[in-house]
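in:
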């Protein structure tokens, strides 16, 4: 990622780059904020389920050796007003009638007596982490949350998700921190249908997803590119099963990173799912733990280049406990690096090169930067 290591320019006028540099200089403690708390384990299934408390037990054990390199951020519940930034009143009322009860919210999403409390805690904690990063208290943050959020729609739970944590955080940044331009990257193996639907008509929120397709939830096709004022600000990279570090790396370096640099967000949010891991039981991809670290390094480099380093990651999927723990530990280690090291992806494969060419061609109408790279 050459742009990430360009020599710094001297500020003469008050350009966005200089504003971002002054922001970064205010961050006196380079350690990332990390949200983790035993209360997130109180959302418990009544029968075996892949989205289970043991996921966070494994993550906590993996992050314990990094305790000196991270800063703990205490979780807090989202307010009703914050939840209403992304969900309808009728949905909150329906959920409220289930408070303290167990049952199924949809065929995949369960509720236990503490589910709504934990879900509010997840959403509020990500809002808090995002606002802290936006204010300059930290450059980077990682939130080890559950239940996950990117499938949750405005009026419905879906796919293990109750509240759309990342969407709520994005809207809170716009409403409370004055952030006008946000990029959301979703690298979960499943398409973030809820996040896409909440922002697909917005021109100032970029949603970019790399996901297995065709696959659950059935959305995220190449021609889903937003509509109205938001046309072009929804970017889907539907990928066939079997893609690994080389294929993902090519898409990051040749498509996603140039698009993010051209977009120039004020903050970068990531729906960080780890179910594209080669050992994950629900996905069909071949990404390694080191591959996820490279994803995070690219995200850090983009954030450093265009938005003063402002970067917030939220846990989504990832269901093999060992693979999840390894991957999260490597990602948080990247976030904790005071000086970002380079991490290379494997060389592109012939199949990956053709796939990247097809995806590039599909997005050049709304993204001239991709045409410029072809001509270069």
């Amino acid at each position: 990622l050459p742009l990430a290591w360009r020599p710094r320019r001297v500020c003469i006028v008050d350009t966005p780059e200089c504003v971002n540099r002054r922001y970064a200089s205010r961050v006196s403690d380079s350690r990332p904020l990390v949200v983790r708390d035993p209360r997130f384990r109180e959302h418990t299934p009544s029968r075996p389920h892949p989205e289970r408390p043991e996921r966070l037990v494994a993550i906590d054990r993996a992050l314990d050796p990094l305790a000196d390199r991270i800063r703990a951020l205490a979780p807090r519940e989202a307010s009703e007003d914050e939840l209403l930034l992304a969900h309808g009143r009728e949905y909150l009322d329906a959920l409220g009638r289930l408070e303290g009860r167990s049952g199924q919210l949809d065929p995949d999403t369960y509720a236990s007596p503490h589910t709504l409390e934990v879900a509010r805690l997840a959403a509020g904690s990500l809002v808090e982490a995002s606002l802290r990063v936006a204010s300059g208290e930290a450059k980077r943050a990682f939130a080890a949350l559950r239940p996950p959020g990117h499938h949750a729609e405005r009026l419905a739970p879906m796919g293990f998700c109750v509240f759309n944590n990342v969407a709520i955080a994005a809207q809170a940044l716009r409403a409370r921190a004055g952030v006008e331009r946000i990029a959301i990257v979703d690298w979960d193996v499943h398409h973030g249908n809820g996040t896409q639907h909440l922002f697909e008509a917005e021109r100032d929120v970029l949603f970019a997803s790399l996901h297995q397709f065709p696959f659950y939830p059935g959305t995220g096709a190449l021609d889903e590119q937003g509509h109205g004022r938001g046309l072009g600000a929804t970017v889907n990279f539907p990928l066939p099963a079997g893609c690994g570090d080389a294929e993902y790396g090519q898409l990051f370096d040749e498509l996603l990173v140039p698009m993010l640099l051209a977009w120039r967000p004020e903050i970068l949010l990531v729906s960080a799912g780890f179910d594209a891991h080669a050992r994950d039981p629900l996905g069909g991809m071949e990404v390694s733990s080191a591959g996820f670290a490279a994803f995070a390094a690219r995200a850090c480099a983009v954030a450093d280049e265009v938005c003063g380093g402002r970067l917030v990651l939220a846990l989504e999927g990832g269901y093999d406990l060992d693979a999840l723990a390894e991957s999260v530990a490597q990602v948080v280690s990247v976030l904790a690096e005071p000086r970002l090291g380079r991490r290379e992806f494997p060389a592109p494969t012939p199949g990956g090169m053709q796939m990247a060419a097809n995806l590039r061609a599909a997005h050049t109408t709304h993204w001239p930067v991709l045409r410029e790279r072809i001509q270069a």
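note: The radius of gyration is 19 Å.
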